[in-house]
Write a structure and sequence with these properties.
Layout: H1 4-8, E1 21-26, E2 32-38, E3 42-45, E4 53-60, E5 88-95, H2 100-103, H3 107-116, E6 139-147, E7 149-154, E8 158-162, E9 166-170, E10 174-177, E11 184-192
Antiparallel strand pairs: 1-2, 3-4, 4-5, 5-11, 6-9, 6-11, 7-8, 7-10
Amino acid sequence: MSTSAEKSRTYPMSKLQPFRRIVTGHDISDRAVITQDAPPTRVVEIGGPGGPIFYEVWNTRQTPAVIDRQSGEPAEDGLVLGPPERGTRIRVIDFPPEDDRIRNLTEAEAAAKFGEMGGADAARSAAGAPHPLMHRTQTIDYGIVIEGELTLVLDEGETAVRTGDIVIQRGTNHAWANRSAANCRVAFVLIDGQYTDGL
């Protein structure tokens, strides 16, 4: 169950409502039980106040995933952009409205932002790119818009995604741009993948 330390944890400022992470397991009689019920404990604000907030919800380290009684989430050092090799990751990101600080990032500054996210090698910013935070990971990502609106930017074309929309991101070069006046919250499930066909 949740501890008083988990309940009293303070989180970076977000205009969106907090959410709970409810984890199930098994007791010694193999009955299903709730083992944790509290907000995520790993929360990182990228780039300081006003930047996106990453809520690291859970990860698995292999496929098939290990299902035991109550081991909890595998430990990690810091924020890591992609899922573990042969694993998965679920995170929620609160995207604030984009401003000139993002739109005017240099290639080096964009790479540094991805370094803060534990994924410097994912950065694909270059002169003439459609967005300074273009990036690519060898993953299948399911992005579920929980609240707000965000623009998915690709090498060729873009589209607005809104509350309830689901994006299936298949290892493509992309960026997320919040061009609205309100925060946007997206849940992402990342699955380790492998490029083929010369990709």
